[in-house]
Amino acid sequence: MGMSEFYGPSDEAEAVATIRRALELGIDFLDTADMYGRGANEELVGRAIRGRRDAVVLATKFGNVRHDDGSREVRGDPDYVRQACDASLRRLGVDHVDLYYQHRVDRRVPIEETVGAMAELVTAGKVRYLGLSEASPQTIRRAHAVHPISALQSEYSLWTRDPESGPLPTCRELGIGFVAYSPLGRGFLSGRIRSAADLAGDDFRRHNPRFQDPNLRRNLALVQTLEELAGARGCTPAQLALAWVLSRGPDVVPIPGTKRRRYLEENAAAAELELTAAELERLDEAFPPGAAAGERYPDMSTIDR
């Protein structure tokens, strides 16, 4: 996402090099969406993997519709599902995607209708597996009854442990994989953000409640504990935060976003970190569910709860 929008200036050449370096490192799961850059990110990913399609597990999403006037809506009607998929395939330059998510649940359309249309895409060979994002346990169950849901993508990190109270146990009961987005708390858990001045003027985090005072001051205290533990372990705070997500189980797959090769390589090294029981206990004490101050988004109305 950040390679095309939302997190300050973009550098397409470095973005493509970062994706290709990820493949060299054995990172083969790439996640995009039609709303990132209003299609530009899918085009970028398509260029980066050209000639390498068989080496990639490719995921994209539909459902967050952005209009020219800046407004947005969520759509899950069957006609839109089919249109969105065809448009994503064209931008990506592929004949199928491996995992197709509904990016947000459209409360105006029964989930059975949306997933029914998504299932048609599987039958047509345009999609291999189906996923949901930010869906509640009830919605997950209803969707799974129509067609197997292979993955749920929701925000999950040391400072966003909400999925533990419902979605994650539901996924485990049904045999659904869990994809953790923003596993570094939108970069905050890296320790590199101390104030809004550290963010570009067009960075969407400037409007995120967790990055605004007084919430910011409280959240910086959490990061200080992470920094102390990382220093004792001889790793970066970001690596420690990723190692914690990886410790949640083999069914939990974090997708840290980055725009640069140096941070990609730092993130990849977190896979080699095995946290001790004492370290996990200390992190649980420092980051209990609900520890972060502020909502995850300025407007939480599109989250299916």
Q: What's the assembly state of these chains? A: single chain
What is the helix fraction of residues, given as a range?
Answer: 25-40%
**Total DSSP helices:** 10
The SSE string, one letter per element, is: HEHEEEHEHEHEHEHHEHH
Summarize the main sheet: 7 strands, parallel
Radius of gyration: 19 Å
Stretches where pLDDT is under 50 for at least 5 consecutive residues are none
- State the end-to-end CA separation: 24 Å
- Spatial strand arrangement across the major sheet: 1-2-5-6-7-8-9
Average pLDDT taken over every residue: 93
* Strand content bin: 5-15%
Summarize the structure in words.
- By secondary structure, the protein is of the alpha/beta class.
- Helices cover 38% and strands 14% of the residues.
- The strands form two sheets. A seven-stranded parallel sheet has the order 1-2-5-6-7-8-9. Strands 3-4 form a two-stranded antiparallel ribbon.
- Strand 3 and strand 4 (72-74) form a beta hairpin.
- The radius of gyration is 19 Å and the shape is globular.
Topology of helices and strands:
Elements lengths: L11 H13 L4 E3 L8 H10 L7 E6 L1 E3 L5 E3 L3 H15 L4 E6 L8 H13 L3 E7 L3 H10 L2 E7 L11 H8 L2 E5 L33 H19 L3 H10 L5 E4 L5 H9 L7 H10 L19
Parallel strand pairs: 1-2, 2-5, 5-6, 6-7, 7-8, 8-9
Antiparallel strand pairs: 3-4
Keywords:
7-stranded parallel sheet, 305 residues, 9 strands, alpha/beta, 38% helix
Structure at a glance:
By secondary structure, the protein is an alpha/beta fold.
